[in-house]
């Protein structure tokens, strides 16, 4: 059960848009629309930002959006702000009924 | 308000056993699948196990299969994780999370509510 592949780090200046990719296989990301994204600050529990590829929970800023193409899902943050500096993890349901997270991406706001 | 409170974490010797608990409130516990996720110090999130609302369906990550057992007591609104044959690789913060799927596995396998975690250290 290999982890989904995410870049270790991304960065952007305030106001810019950034995209974090999440690459899986035809047994997880490519097969189901069950990709979710989590934001985690150091020492805190994760928080869901996107679920079912594109859905945003109530209370989450509309600056966050998700998409998927083939075996790769993406999280885009439009107009990145200092408060967005955190770790981001993707997650996918798998064909064997288990789940798998990505390795995590550290977002730095310059 | 959904609340999840993990307990049972401790310092344990290699090869030992430990049982984690997660007390749930604020929702109909038996109507929801529940998941355990762990995080090694300074590392990323790792999916561990999931259990159906009624407890009859369970799935495990390869890394813990055969050593960990997930269970629940719906009369006590409590989720458990029995961990045996522990190794240093099992060290980490263990979170319980409310799965988005209902008792019949319908819905979104995503995690909208998390506890604060309980720390397991294997040495």
Topology:
The complex is a heterodimer of chains A (about 110) and B (about 120).
Chain A: E1 9-12, E2 18-23, E3 35-40, E4 47-50, E5 64-69, E6 72-77, E7 87-93, E8 99-101, E9 105-109
Parallel strand pairs in A: 1-9
Antiparallel strand pairs in A: 2-6, 3-4, 3-7, 5-6, 7-8, 7-9
Chain B: E1 3-7, E2 11-12, E3 18-25, E4 32-39, E5 45-51, E6 58-60, E7 68-73, E8 78-83, E9 92-102, E10 107-114, E11 118-122
Please characterize this protein's 3D structure.
The complex is a heterodimer of chains A (110) and B (123). With 110 residues, chain A is mainly beta. In chain A, 0% of the residues lie in helices and 43% in strands. Chain A contains no helices and nine strands. Chain A has strands spanning 9-12, 18-23, 35-40, 47-50, 64-69, 72-77, 87-93, 99-101, 105-109. The mean pLDDT of chain A is 97. Chain B is an all-beta fold and 123 residues long. At the A-B interface, strand 3, strand 7 and strand 8 of A face strand 5 and strand 10 of B.
Q: Which range does the strand content of chain B fall in?
A: over 45%
Shape of chain B: globular
Largest interface, C-beta within 8 A: A-B, 27 and 23 residues
Round the mean pLDDT of chain B to the nearest integer and report it.
Answer: 97
Largest sheet of chain B: 7 strands, mixed
Total strands of chain A: the figure is 9
Form type of chain A: globular
Keywords:
heterodimer; A: 110 residues; mainly beta; 6-stranded mixed beta sheet; 3-stranded antiparallel beta sheet; 43% strand; B: 123 residues; 7-stranded mixed beta sheet; 4-stranded antiparallel beta sheet
Short summary:
Chain A has no helices and 9 strands. Chain A is an all-beta fold and 110 residues long.
